[in-house]
Target: ATP-dependent RNA helicase
Amino acid sequence: MHSTNFSTLNLKPALFENLASLGYHEMTPIQAQTLPLVVSGKDVIGQGKTGSGKTAAFALGLLQRLDVKRFRIQSLVLCPTRELAEQVAKDIRTLARGIHNIKVLTLCGGTPMGPQIGSLEHGAHIIVGTPGRLEDHLFRGRLKLDDVNTLVLDEADRMLDMGFQAALDNIMEQCPVERQTLLFSATFPDKIQKIADSFMKQPALVKVASVHKENAITQAFYHLENSNARYDATKRLLLAKQAQSAVIFANTKVEVHELYQRLVEDGFSVLALHGDLEQRERNETLLRFANQSSLILVATDVAARGLDIDDLDMVINYHLTPDTEVHVHRIGRTGRAGAKGIACSLYTDRDTRKIADLETYFDIVIEPTQLPDESILATQPPKANMVTIQIDGGKKQKLRPGDIVGGLTGKQGIKGDQIGKIQVTDLKAYVAVQSNVAKTALKKIERDKMKGRTFRARLMTW
Model:
């Protein structure tokens, strides 16, 4: 059991006195598990949600290592949005109150470049910023990271979602090899493992138990009188669950298309994925589903290969597949990353053999589940919270995620936390924004310049 009192840590007296004056005595679970490792100089991966107290976990570590007399950049903290960066910088300043003459500087997109250049010329001990703007300053030779001894990636999964992978790689490569790296993330996708493998030295992995639950997929089987009842059953399940992310598997592309058309007519937020789509259409469909601009994806098994969505609430097997392994693969797309998922399978008397195969495979007896009552059909389908803006410019135009975040935020723009996933291809860029600010975001992109020029943009709808 970890001791939870700050006094057990080997911290500078000035930090202790300030913590006591702020009324901080007991550590939160993530602090108790990470701070002893952080203070001892180890690389740490902390998995915990926002609000778990992780800022103090890394802030106390970097303040402990800081030498105020050396007026060089010794700590670098990377955050996905300007709002978070400003909050983190504020928290660091509060925790550093007992140490005189500490300079903390924020460098974020969506704010004018001029004052930042001036501040950088005056120097700083700690830099907190967003990847796009930091990369910009690095490339222009204004930012020197030769003296960094602590590098922090805060909300790393969110930065990757927003398309900052390349910028993170570039920044980390410019930092000294001999340094401490601390990475905090609410989820732990494969891309984070890659960062850990490439840029961290034998990191200790700390998970806060309250965040992470065991994988759990609940399977439910619904017996139908005949095939004509499939659509009605599907609609009831979708309305009852109000899923924010559901994939429906049909066996043929004709059935995918028919089901898609009927769901659109009934007001569902839905996209279709089948073998007749061109590669660009397929990519854009997957992108819009992954960034939550659409809540339902109807797909064939072949088309859904490579589908990698972490937060899938629900899978519906519109038809059972004859191949048990394919069934396992289908339902395994839900219940990931510690979330609970439900897999609903529709079947008729013709599927007796398939049901028997599944019973043998899972070593269960399949009892039919009752469908939600037909009164649920009066419910309104849920609407997507996000919408995708397509920008007519990409890597060839030197457009980077940081430029897009900067272009959307700031004067008469939207907030950083209203921006979702960003993807930049060679000639196009796609950014998800909250639906209620979509028009503001679109106007801001079309009106203001990014990379010294204006870009055309449009909202992607069906």
